[in-house]
Design a protein that fits this description.
It is built from twelve helices and 18 strands. A seven-stranded mixed beta sheet has the order 5-4-1-6-7-11-10, sandwiched between helices. It has two domains: 225 residues, Class I glutamine amidotransferase (GATase) domain (Rossmann fold, 3-Layer(aba) Sandwich), CATH 3.40.50; 141 residues, Electron Transport, Fmn-binding Protein, Chain A (Pnp Oxidase, Chain A). Helices cover 29% and strands 23% of the residues. The chain is an alpha/beta fold. The longest helix is centred in the first third of the chain and has 13 residues. α1 packs parallel to α8.
């Protein structure tokens, strides 16, 4: 099952151009229509906000007397538990999701435009060619994504968003502190907009953007279509013992190619205390005839058990696809590590995040062949 992280703003007010405060929140139609289409398509949706604070709907999106308001309220009530207890963006791990989806309302123009955790998630999603989807003012969240040199991560990408014309004719007009379409253009995005209030969706690879609330259904449907193209099929959902078992059974046909271009080897180690053989499925990259793996378990302060096992018994074996390779393990030297680290973070950008979570210097382990490979 594919899984989407729906990021909502936790802001309930927007500071206007004249310095006054304007009540805001997420736009109900955009959340309801999107959540409904995704879940009905069998896609798991989890909601996160900055700080894990409960988001609120913009009162303007639930007008009294509108025929849709009771329907929207009923749906929001049905997901009340998710809305009242969202995940904290700071605790969300990018590899757990197949993409990020940001609905609008004016609220994203406050706390999502420069959020470091959203920056981490969006940057990773772009690097791994995951789905990134925004609706209406949700495109303000894209502003948080910067490149290593400080540029805009979505420069030159085809994007649509709530237009300046829509802001002036049905939004906040000149009271708006800044205009989203203008800001995105200034940063180099290739804006493509339809007529005001038209159902307009722009698809640029895995980047999917909807112009306004009227585009909610079409945007969500485009995301559903994009998620049908998840790389590696069901193999991407393999984990732990099931991953190892399937890898062994198929000689790597299932399990070697994993999530978003990563590759997996099976490493055997001898338990430092038990003396028993253990097998571990690890992301790897080839390196000058050797194999690189990263000795981390999600940024925990303690090293993974397999790395301690290898320290005590460095001679072991790995399985790469249908080949068993005898190897000797060693830790990369300080001179070697920068280039090797860059290689491994190219494979899995979250390693940088793991390092930021701990004071322990996460080592690169080099697995050097000590003999000829044999068939698995």
């Amino acid at each position: 099952m594919a899984k989407i992280l729906m990021v909502l703003s936790a802001a309930d007010s927007l500071t206007l151009a004249d310095g006054t405060s304007h009540p805001t929140g997420y736009w109900a139609e955009e959340v309801v229509r999107s959540h409904q289409v995704l879940t009905e398509a069998g896609i798991a949706v989890e909601i996160a906000t900055p700080g894990g604070r409960a988001p609120v709907p913009d009162a303007g999106s639930l007008p009294e007397g509108d025929e849709n308001t009771p329907l929207f309220r009923a749906y929001l009530d049905s997901i009340d538990e998710e809305l009242e207890h969202p995940k904290k963006l700071s605790e969300v791990s990018g590899p757990d999701y197949d993409g990020v989806y940001v609905p609008g309302g004016h609220a994203p123009m406050t706390d999502l435009i420069d959020d470091p955790d959203l920056r981490r998630l969006l940057t990773r999603a772009v690097a791994k060619d995951q789905v990134v989807a925004t609706l209406c003012h949700g495109a303000a969240a894209l502003l948080s994504a910067t490149t290593t040199d400080g540029g805009f991560a979505f420069a030159d990408r085809r994007i649509t968003a709530f237009t300046d014309e829509e802001e002036n004719t049905g939004g906040l007009g000149e009271r708006n502190p800044w205009f989203l379409e203008t800001r995105l253009k200034e940063l180099g995005a290739a804006l493509e907009t339809g007529a005001a209030w038209s159902d307009t969706v722009v698809v640029d690879g895995k980047l999917i953007t909807g112009q306004n609330p009227q585009s909610s259904l079409s945007t969500a449907k485009a995301v559903v279509e994009a998620l049908k193209e998840i790389p590696n099929g069901t193999a991407r959902d393999l984990h732990g013992a099931a991953h190892i078992r399937r890898y062994r059974e198929t000689k790597g046909a299932d399990g070697h190619d994993w999530r978003y271009g990563t590759t997996i080897l099976l490493l055997d180690s001898i338990g430092n205390k038990s003396g028993e053989q253990r097998t571990h499925a690890l992301i790897y990259r080839p390196w000058n005839g050797a194999y690189l793996v990263v000795a981390s378990k999600g940024g925990a302060d303690a090293p993974p058990a397999w790395s301690l096992n290898l320290k005590a018994t460095p001679d072991t074996q790995i399985q790469v696809k249908d080949q068993i390779v005898p190897v000797r393990a060693r830790v990369a030297t300080p001179d070697e590590k920068p280039a090797m680290w860059a290689e491994m973070t190219d494979a899995w950008p979250d390693y940088d995040d793991y390092q930021a979570r701990t004071d322990r210097e996460i080592p690169i382990v080099v697995l050097e062949p000590t003999g000829a490979a044999r068939p698995a």
